[in-house]
Amino acid sequence: MVRPAAAADIPAIIAVHERCWRISYAGIADADAKFARPRAEWERLWGEILERTRVVEADGAIAGFVVVGTTRDADAPPGTGEIEALYVDPDRQGGGYGRVLVDAAMAELRAGGFRRVTLWTFQHNPASRGFYERLGFTWDGTVTRDEDGPIVRYAAPLT
User: Fold this and answer.
1) What confidence tens digit (pLDDT) does each residue in 44-96 have?
2) pLDDT tens per residue across span 83-108
3) If DSSP codes are grouped into helix, strand and coil, which group holds residue 136?
4) What would you measure as the largest C-alpha separation in the chain, in angstroms?
5) Residue 29 Cα to chain centre, angstroms
6) 54: which strand partners?
7) CATH of 2-157, one of 3.90.1150.10, 3.40.630.30, 3.40.190.10, 3.40.640.10
8) Which of 91, 105, 8 is nearest to 54 (CA)?
9) Is the pTM of this model over 0.90?
10) How far apart are CA 128 and CA 94, in angstroms?
């Protein structure tokens, strides 16, 4: 079951986030650089987006999370929402948690009046790209680079 994240979930969210970077992104992105900032800084950052964060649990632990909101892309048409982050603990990947989180995010965005959803993923991450494509997302041809490397934008209608 997907539920809104609570302040008490922040340590588990940070742990899942870091495990994904260290395991799922090995060879793609620099986890040491990403997680060099102090723990208190991560807690503050998660506190700022907690209201837009949803979690899914398995066996009493956070198995994954999703962050949703209005798109941050200046070139997006009106009515575009965004999945800003989606992470499932590497030990739980393939268990349906990612799909449940995406479905919940899309339902929430749809209920909020959005007609389209976008997300960004690493260009050189075939596992993530394949996952989103299986869920009906398509790469819209946009490639850019952020502080962690080259990323590509995917989009899907919210119908």
Assistant:
1) 999 999 999 999 999 999 999 999 999 999 999 999 999 999 999 999 999 99
2) 999 999 999 999 999 999 999 999 99
3) coil
4) 41
5) 15
6) 4, 66
7) 3.40.630.30
8) 105
9) yes
10) 11
